[in-house]
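Ticket #4471: structure output looks truncated?

Reporter: J.K.
Steps to reproduce: submitted the chain below (299 residues) through the standard prediction queue, then opened the result file.
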Amino acid sequence: MCYFSAMKQRIPALLKPGDLIGLSATARFATREMISTAKAYIEAAGFNVFYSEDILLQDGQVAGTKEARIRTTNALIHNEEVKAIWNIRGGYGSAEIVDHIDWDALQAQPKWLIGFSDFTTFLSHAYQKGLPSIHAAMPVSFEKTNKQDLQATFALLQNGPKPLALTSTATPCSGKVIGGNLSVIYSIYGTPSLQTLEGSVLLLEDLDEYHYHLDRMLLALERKGAFNGVSAVLLGQFSDIHDHDTPWGDSVEHTLVKYFEAAGIQVLQNMPFGHTSRQFPIVIGSHAEISEHEITFTL
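Returned output as attached by the reporter:
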């Protein structure tokens, strides 16, 4: 039984060849090279691309001022020709603007939001608003992304989600899919962007963190009761994890599972998503049915 609460879902329409995909930059700024890469891959898949020159603005590490990022993101939402919004890269900055996005307009005319990493804030907030979104590769890493995973993302946009085969035997269970980057989940849990994880199948991945900080984040979430009622955890890739000369202690693998295992929550490890070449697309807000050998996702 799923207790994860959100508004009634407003599912975006599947895309057709020739549909327009908008490029956003809610955190770090875009470059001409990233835009060229995005256009090449998206147009090769049969879609058209729209973007504002403002995503090239730079204010320190982010794509212009807070006001500029709000304006350019809302312009994509208000553009009736844009059927999906693909964030060009991660970094940090999405949480600064998420409360100023015109979510009412997005609910009135749902569009697919696509990305991961720092964009986890938008994916999670969209779920709170009853809007499914797609955890998938972003243009900044298209050239390094597994070709089958990227093709699967374009196929999902046109045909809906496909099953994910498991490499080890799982215990059957189900729940609503939520999650993404652990650092972001840690930072937004308890805010309007993420109220509860109860009844969820929880995705987690991360990059460039210290081993002890992974423990700190998971412990903090555990102490807040965030993992109460979680159906299962899908651990993606945890890349470039650092340690000190005197190691934190247990292996990173043990640190990632110990709080879940203590609570009797099933953990599936080494899943094909994260800051690596593997980035199997998963719909946040879909219903995940875990069987012994695969996970199916339905809207």
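Triage note (M.O.): checked the attachment and the full token line is present. The domain at 164-298 is CATH 3.50.30.60 (Glucose Oxidase; domain 1).
Status: closed, working as intended.
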